[in-house]
Design brief:
Blueprint: H1 3-13, H2 21-27, E1 32-36, E2 39-42, E3 47-50, H3 53-56, H4 65-77, H5 90-102, E4 109-113, H6 116-133, E5 141-145, H7 156-159, E6 176-179, H8 192-210, E7 215-220, H9 236-247, E8 250-254, H10 269-272, E9 278-281, E10 293-297, H11 299-309, H12 324-357, E11 365-371, E12 374-382, E13 387-388, H13 395-405, E14 408-409, E15 411-413, E16 417-420, H14 428-446, H15 449-454
Parallel strand pairs: 3-14, 5-6, 5-7, 7-8, 8-9
Antiparallel strand pairs: 1-2, 2-3, 4-10, 9-10, 11-12, 12-13, 12-16, 15-16
Helix pairs in contact: 4-12, 5-12, 6-11, 8-9, 12-14
The structure holds 4'-deoxy-4'-aminopyridoxal-5'-phosphate (PMP).
Pfam families: Aminotran_3
Organism: Psychromarinibacter sediminicola
Cofactor: pyridoxal 5'-phosphate
Length: 455
């Protein structure tokens, strides 16, 4: 079908996620038609390096025939089996066991969802159920971190701390509280240990303000993704985990982005040597080939819920929980990761970080941050004052479009942050091209009249 007729059909009928409906109608869709390795092609025949792995999910890269074969085989054999009525299928059972073996500590019980938002939503329900089972139903207050993202479900969007997900939706709920982000680049508190100490003090103060006996759980992304790839000082996550342990507050790690090799190890919590009470994953779990998410429950959370419910059914589930095709895909993706992609990702992550660090000499680069294959470059017009780009730039369209013209897909956050999450299969040449194309985007932006006027 001709690309322009697709654009018209899209405009008329397809509602796009997290978009200005009218803005999208005016701009029109760009239709992607194929993918191989770290590269995608569009309907115009253009080839681009996907520096964002779709939506930080295609960790294994595109075009793996073995993944296609695993899905086809599962569909042929048994496309669907419910987990209700004590039924099940082989692939989800094997996947749960494989994940339990690889997860931190005693996070040995896996509840499959369709993606990250319903994984977060499921944790909220499990946390509530847990405290009921423990005879403390008043533990119903939740804390998360400013600039955090925990999905777009009705409950989870209130743990998310980005205004667009709240405005007009009546969120957050009164039981959803926030502490400040570590955001080291713009934190008035300077120095890694000082930032950790300030967050510890703020979390303690927040718990005490609410009343420790009321606080159910605290949510953390090991690296904040959608808030602009905000990397806490090493030790920050551990310090937060310790505060929660001290007050008996459940600690939930949201590893939807950071899981499956994105930052180096299979789960980012490993780097901090911590074991959360609950953990969420999605994205890299199936590398985006089919939808799936997973909630990990530690032994004590699982057993408390199990013993509390006794013979009564725990009323939480989806038709597509533990979908066999998604599980078969995830098992094959895991084999690819462990067959060399995790290792390649670690090497390429170091190269990406070194390459982006090399952009610090550019007049528009205020900050470079990241870990492994998850990184960001924050643009400013005054490095000393850390002055953001003028509002007229509208990075999400101008910088995104410019990168596209250079043959690179990246995430251009509204506040002038370029985000990177390339597939772990990238070659050295592709990593170098990501950096070189970014420099061209920066050089061209430096020529813009509104940017020059603001310098
Ligand atoms: N948690 C985090 C940390 C995420 O980054 C995301 C998605 N970007 C979600 C939850 C929600 O996942 P999904 O979009 O699959 O519902």
């Amino acid at each position: 079908m001709l690309s322009n007729s697709l654009v018209e059909l899209d405009r008329r009928h397809l509602v796009h996620p997290v978009s200005s409906f009218r803005g999208h109608e005016a701009r029109g869709v760009r239709v992607l038609t194929g993918g191989q390795g770290a590269t995608v092609s569009d309907a115009e025949g253009r080839r681009l390096i996907d520096g964002f792995a779709g939506l930080w999910c295609v960790n294994a890269g595109y075009g793996h025939e073995s993944v296609v074969a695993a899905a086809a085989e599962q569909m042929r054999q048994l496309p669907y089996a419910t987990g209700y009525f004590d039924l099940g299928a082989e692939a989800p059972i094997l996947l749960a066991a494989a994940l339990a073996e690889r997860s931190p500590g005693d996070l040995d019980h896996v509840y499959f969802t369709l993606g990250g938002s319903d994984a977060v939503d499921s944790t909220i329900r499990f946390v509530r159920y847990y405290w009921h089972a423990r005879g403390q139903p008043d533990r119903d207050q939740f804390i998360s971190v400013a600039q955090g993202y925990h999905g777009s479900s009705s409950l989870g969007a209130g743990l998310t701390a980005l205004p667009a997900f709240h405005d007009g939706f009546g969120l957050p709920y009164p039981w959803q509280h926030k502490i400040s982000s570590h955001y080291t680049y713009r934190n008035p508190v300077r120095g890694d240990q000082a930032v950790i100490d300030a967050s510890v003090a703020e979390l303690r103060a927040k718990i005490e303000e609410i009343g420790a006996e009321r606080v159910a759980a605290f949510y953390v992304e090991p690296i904040q993704g959608s808030g602009g790839v905000l990397v806490p000082p090493m030790g920050w996550v551990k310090a937060m985990r310790e505060v929660c342990a001290e007050y008996g507050v459940l600690f939930v790690a949201d590893e939807v982005i950071t899981g499956f090799g994105r930052t180096g190890p299979i789960f980012a919590c490993e780097e901090e040597g911590i074991v959360p009470d609950l953990m969420t994953t999605a994205k890299g779990l199936t590398s985006g080939y089919v939808p799936m998410g997973a909630v990990f429950l530690s032994d004590h959370v699982y057993d408390t819920i199990a013993d509390g419910a006794g013979a009564k059914a725990i009323g939480h589930g989806f038709t597509y929980s533990a979908h066999p095709v998604s599980a078969a895909v995830a098992l094959e993706v895991l084999a690819l990761y462990e067959g060399g992609l995790f290792e390649n990702g670690r090497r390429m992550g170091a190269r990406l970080m070194a390459g982006l660090e090399g952009l610090r000499d550019h007049p528009l680069v205020g900050d470079v941050r990241g870990r492994g294959m998850l990184a960001a470059v924050e643009l400013v017009v005054d490095k000393a004052e850390k002055t953001p780009l003028p509002a007229s730039v509208q990075p999400a369209t101008r910088l995104f479009d410019r990168a596209w013209e250079e043959g690179l897909i990246l995430r251009a956050f509204a506040q002038g942050v370029l985000g990177y999450a390339p597939p772990l299969c990238c070659t050295e040449d592709e990593i170098d091209a990501i950096v070189a194309r970014t420099r061209r985007v920066l050089d061209r932006t430096l020529e813009d009249e509104d940017v020059r006027a603001a310098l």
